[in-house]
Amino acid sequence: MVAVALTWVDVSGITRTKTVPVERLEHAATWGVGMSPVFDVFLLDDSITSGKYIGGPSSDLRLHPDLSRLRPMAALPGWAQAPALRYAQDGTVHPLDARALLRRETERLADGGWSVRAAFEIEWAVSLKDGPKGDGDAFVPACRGPAYGMTRVTELAGYLRDLLSALKATGVTVAQLHPEYAAGQYEVSVVAEDPVGAADTAVLVRETIRAVSMEHGLAATFSPKVEADSVGNGAHVHLSLWRRAGASGPVNAMAGGDGPCGMTAAGEAFAAGILRRLPALLAIGAPSVASYLRLVPSHWSGAFACWGRENREAALRFVTGADGEQADAANLEVKCLDAAANPYLVLAASLAAGRDGLGTELRLPEPIGVDPAGLSDEERAARGIGRLPESLPEAVAAFEADTVLRDALGEAVIDTVAAVRRGEIALLDGATPEQVAAATRWRH
């Protein structure tokens, strides 16, 4: 090992880094590495906005690597990665440290005897690196087999083999990998772990995919909308709530109960809390202008605020698992999220929403077993099915008005997220869908 990348994810969902030679790692862990807080108000094109709490050239933070999560990056020989914790120079936690926010939310749940297991599904599309004109900006699918077809595995078998090998050597446990719907698109699923670990793993998986792609002369994009006329990339989150149960170990609250689809009352309340806050959560989980080109009905993106058992058109899909494994496998899949999101921030907000559901003993509405887009407006209204925000400004308005998320995340987070979102709305104001896709394509 020669060097260590200290990484964190900014409000725009871009992974930033400072790196240190391995000989300086102990010093970095003790004293930190300097980094300006202004990166929290960087936009996706690296221009800078400002908010009430963050902005300007003054001040400094210290990045401290979490050595418990130090991992070798098998796809980048000689390199390792450690997620950074961000502190002010006086040792206080930076209010925009999303990893610290997520840790705090897991501790709040733990105070009530609860834990959460989480995992991200990561979708990406692979392009021939230089495109037809050699400019590197165009997207040219690296494979053209049918959606979900074995042909796509055969076309890029060596690439996928090396990716799986690199992930394994990096310490990531892959559950499955498969071709997806859009041209050149794949998805990898990893096993569930604690929420902070799940977000750390999401960052590590994406950087591994990026590195292996480059080694094969390809370019990987995680953008919510790679091409304006094609299906975009999601980053679905799987969540399950677990109750401490003494010597017998944790018990999954999403199974074994008398509630909908076998949920316990607590599992239902947790799910209902997330469902209620989805419009506001989108400002974090579908955070780019391009996100709303992806979040459209009848595209399996979860464009309607409803839930259903194994319903891939519902924003909240309840996954039971096969008969006999429900006690371990039952979980919620939040489908309306994409990879422009900061994984730490989206999990922190989701856990806060679920915790509020637990505290208020919320109940779910009736499950939806059809594509909501196929129902009339009157039928949707009668069944309580609302359309999720159709634009980033709508999501930001819902986010700023949500008192539960404001209380959980803090004023600095609310203000900074809203400022960055408005900056990117202004940046792409008047752009066509094709221009939005092009501007976002290689940023995430």
Automatic annotation (TrEMBL):
It comes from the Bacteria. GO terms for biological process: glutamine biosynthetic process. It holds the Pfam family Gln-synt_C. Residues 98-444 form the GS catalytic domain. Residues 1-91 form the GS beta-grasp domain. The keyword ATP-binding applies. InterPro entries: Gln_synt_N, Gln_synt_N_sf, Gln_synth/guanido_kin_cat_dom, Gln_synth_cat_dom. Coiled coil: none annotated. GO terms for molecular function: ATP binding; glutamine synthetase activity. The keyword ATP-binding applies. Keywords: ATP-binding, Ligase, Nucleotide-binding. Belongs to the glutamine synthetase family. This is Glutamine synthetase. It comes from Actinomadura spongiicola.
